[in-house]
Amino acid sequence: MVRHLATGVPGNLTDSLENSYIFSWDAHALLHQPLRLFDANIFFVNVATLALYAVGGYTTYLLVRELGASRGPGVVAGVAFLGAPYRVVVIQHLTVLATHLLPLAFLLLLRIEREVVVPTRRAPAGPSPRGRLPRLGRLAI
């Protein structure tokens, strides 16, 4: 830490960097626009944040439908994913917002697994793992 006084951050990098940003924003706003102190670009929930909730719920619905369920269970799963207390309480943490894209990633992996066909060559003898697409979707889920 002593060797990196100008660039080092004490403690872990999760809250330390966030707090550094908040303090630097306050200093910047007080010097340049004191009447807009509380208008930081992280102060309000914006359209992108709300869109992530919609994408997460809808892709959860699509994932459940892709796995063979009907519309009812798909809607219930999408709403449950949206309204999970953990997701609602930690809306201010940008890293947690990225978890709303996990159902989309799983859905895409499942579709890749089902739709991509890799041509196989005749092996001389015995089973060969080459030429077959790994079961990525089920591995991820």
Overview of the molecule:
With 141 residues, the chain is mostly helical. The protein has 2 domains: 15-44, no CATH class; 47-114 and 133-140, no CATH class. It has helices at residues 15-32, 47-66, 71-82, 85-89, 94-97, 102-115, 136-140. Helix 2 packs antiparallel against helix 3 (71-82). The radius of gyration is 23 Å and the shape is elongated. The mean pLDDT is 77.
Q: What about the largest sheet?
A: none
Looking at the chains present, what oligomeric state does this protein adopt?
Answer: single chain
Head-to-tail CA distance between termini: 41 Å
Secondary structure: number of strands: 0
Query: What is the CA-atom radius of gyration, in angstroms?
Result: 23 Å
Number of domains: 2
Mean pLDDT, to the nearest integer, reads: 77
Strand content: under 5%
**Low-confidence regions:** none
Structural class, from helix and strand content? mainly alpha
Number of helices: 7
Order of helices and strands: HHHHHHH
Helix content: 55-70%
Gross geometry: elongated
Keywords:
141 residues, mainly alpha, 2 domains, 7 helices, 55% helix, 0% strand, elongated
Short description:
With 141 residues, the protein is mainly alpha-helical. It is built from 7 helices and no strands.
Task: Indicate the topology.
Blueprint: H1 15-32, H2 47-66, H3 71-82, H4 85-89, H5 94-97, H6 102-115, H7 136-140
Helix pairs in contact: 2-3, 2-6
